[in-house]
UniProtKB/TrEMBL annotation:
Composition skew (Low complexity), residue ranges: 114-131
Positions with biased composition (Basic and acidic residues): 146-157
Full protein name: YdhG-like domain-containing protein
Annotated stretches, region: Disordered: 114-167
Gene source species: Gordonia spumicola
């Protein structure tokens, strides 16, 4: 199995944020790192070359249960075009805060906003608060009855006659 590309590094979070461009992304990053640290109680760690993460959890891919790895519970990346926020969409409480970000787009695991995120402190603090308790959303979770996990696996393999079975 291939080694994951996004993993914790020893790179300096402060050096990364100091080098972020444009200036408004640098300012966003400096505000968010303090806010996330305060809300999560965890020190930031660089994940890969451009993601500032807080905490860690073990995930199992819902698409391929053999794919597993570590991922930050919550994170952000001050990219040039937009600010990417990770972990916000995982829980209903966090997803409800998305409109407070203003105009945003959604990726597979993130919400991206081109607006200055520091103007919405309530949304930014909510970004990091639901995520520390985040659990991987996977059919292998122990809180899902084994019959439900089996039905999910059968559906993924095309063995189910019922297309509307809830997981």
């Amino acid at each position: 199995m291939a080694e994951p590309k996004t993993k914790p590094t020893d790179a300096s979070v402060d050096a990364f944020l100091d080098a972020a461009t444009p200036a408004r992304r640098r300012a966003d990053g400096l505000v968010l790192v303090d806010l996330f640290r305060e809300v999560t109680g965890v020190d930031p760690v660089m994940w890969g070359p451009s993601m500032v993460g807080f905490g860690r959890y073990r995930y199992i891919s819902p698409v391929n249960p053999r794919t597993r790895g570590d991922w930050p519970k919550t994170a952000f990346s001050p990219r040039k075009a937009s600010l990417s926020l990770y972990g916000l969409k995982d829980l209903p409480e966090g997803a409800a805060l998305l409109p407070e970000l203003g105009v945003y787009t959604e990726g597979m695991g993130c919400a991206c906003t081109s607006r200055n995120s520091t103007t919405s402190t309530s949304a930014s603090s909510g970004v990091s608060s639901p995520s520390p308790g985040r659990e991987p959303t996977t059919p292998n979770r122990p809180d899902i009855p084994s019959a439900e996990r089996d039905r999910w696996s059968d559906q993924r393999r095309g063995r189910s006659n019922s297309a509307t079975t809830a997981v």
